[in-house]
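User: Here's a protein and a ligand (farnesyl diphosphate). What would the complex look like?
Assistant: Let me lay out the input and then the predicted complex.
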Amino acid sequence: MTRSSEVKLPEEVPAHVAIIMDGNGRWARKRGLPRLAGHRAGVENLRRILEASAEFGIKYLTIYAFSTENWERPAAEVRGLINILEDVIDQELETLHQNGVQLRHLGRLERLGTELQEKVRHAIELTNNNQQLILNVAWNYGGRDEIVHAIQRMIEDGLKPEDVTEERVSEYLYTSKCPDPDLIIRTSGEMRVSNFLIWQGAYSEWYVTPTYWPEFGPDELLKALHEYAQRERRYGRISDPIKTN
Ligand code: FPP
């Protein structure tokens, strides 16, 4: 990528950026195209954003690719999204690996065919030692489902009530090896959490843009990073305790 010299990064870049890639359907409708064309355009854009994220120094990128609620969409769209997941692995895995991207999955794989489950596991194993960028793909992911899954596993492991701390709960989530997201971006203007990282996002900063996901390019990501750098993260505290005296 040749942008590096032109890019003016803010002083502080968030380590972990999470994205709700919304608006693919509306992007397609605006052009008279089928919804799946919007999702395919979304994948094209993901490629640009991955490259830009690595260039901007983001260490963890989490993308919401398929929610536990998305199964309720028409069967053809669900099938199309599953095909996209398979195509991405078949066509992009080697390039991702060469570029030092470590793939991780958030969610449940059970409802995928066994062959595709194997491909996902293989992709995770192959890229396990890569450190350039950690890419969490939330697929068949729901924040509530994740918490239920964590509670089930804590009970299975025989944890006592006093063992259940916030740190311990975090260790049982799909994101156990990952810091909480600093910045959550949602494209297409919707002001909803949509069951995304509801535990991990407790103190994340939000950036919502009306831009549809296929058009959310590196320049807009950079704009989001600059806006993030202006935010004061107080985590429920006040900014300058001395002033209150
Ligand atoms: C939301 O747009 C988008 C999705 C539900 C799917 C996002 C998936 C991709 C971009 C493909 C990436 C996949 C992988 C496996 C990396 P929407 O359909 O809800 O848009 P709308 O609100 O305009 O209808």
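Summary: The chain has one domain: 16-141+180-229.
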